[in-house]
């Protein structure tokens, strides 16, 4: 897959695009350090325009709508429980982020019913002394799966984590989530059964600081790294 185009600063054209499509109401909400360089815009083969951008606090209702539109299987794969939507408190937890230790990217698309979030990916830096480990999560709504959006979102998330100094990215994937496991291996993650929870697979990788794919560490290197990151 071609490396995604990077936007280092928000241009006038992009600003108009975000305002006109109702993605961001820049006139009523301002974030001092909103990471515009993480915004990515591209068109699919059928011409549909996709915008990937860091989440905003006002995205809570749209994010909850995405969860409600997902199948029960997708909700279980994402949250490991069959939730029906997001409470206001959960919406705040998922949208009010600092973009450094907690980054969430949302995919938005214009539909006949208005703009919608069709996917989200995030990482949260683990509470370790060196702050080099982070836990990730990824979800694409059912109607938009199998179109490369998960791979692209995960690649953007890995790039952002790498840029923030994260060296080790890991997450739990349910054993029956075969599409997600395939995606993880495609972008360079190792996937091994969780020793304590038989329904879960540990997906983890060292991030290549040179900006390439994730690195699947050898077993010895993997345990050496884990001991380093777990040290108090």
UniProtKB/TrEMBL annotation:
It comes from the Bacteria. Keywords: Transferase. It comes from Pararobbsia silviterrae. PROSITE patterns: GNAT (PS51186). Signal peptide: none annotated. One of its GO terms (molecular function) is acyltransferase activity, transferring groups other than amino-acyl groups. It holds the Pfam family Acetyltransf_1. Gene3D superfamilies: 3.40.630.30. This is GNAT family N-acetyltransferase. InterPro entries: Acyl_CoA_acyltransferase, GNAT_dom. Residues 50-208 form the N-acetyltransferase domain.
């Amino acid at each position: 897959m071609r490396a995604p185009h990077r936007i280092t600063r928000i241009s006038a054209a992009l600003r108009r695009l975000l305002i006109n499509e109702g993605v961001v109401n820049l006139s009523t909400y301002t974030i001092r350090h909103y990471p515009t360089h993480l915004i990515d815009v591209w068109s699919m083969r059928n011409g549909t325009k996709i915008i990937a951008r860091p989440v905003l606090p006002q995205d809570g209702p749209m994010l909850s709508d995405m969860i409600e539109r997902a199948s029960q299987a997708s909700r279980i794969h994402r949250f490991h429980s069959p939730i029906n939507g997001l409470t206001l408190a959960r919406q705040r937890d998922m949208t009010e982020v600092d973009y450094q230790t907690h980054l969430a990217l949302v995919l938005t698309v214009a539909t006949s019913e208005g703009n919608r979030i069709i996917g989200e990916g995030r990482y949260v830096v683990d509470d370790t002394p060196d702050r080099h480990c982070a836990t990730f999560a990824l979800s694409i709504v059912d109607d938009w799966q199998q179109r490369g959006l998960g791979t692209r979102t995960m690649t953007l998330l890995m790039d952002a984590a790498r840029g923030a100094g994260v060296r080790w990215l890991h997450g739990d994937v349910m054993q029956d989530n075969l599409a997600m496991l395939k995606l993880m291996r495609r972008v360079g993650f190792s996937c091994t059964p969780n020793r304590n929870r038989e329904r879960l697979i540990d997906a983890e990788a060292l991030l290549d600081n040179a900006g390439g794919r994730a690195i699947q560490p050898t077993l010895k290197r993997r345990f050496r790294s884990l001991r380093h990151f777990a040290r108090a």
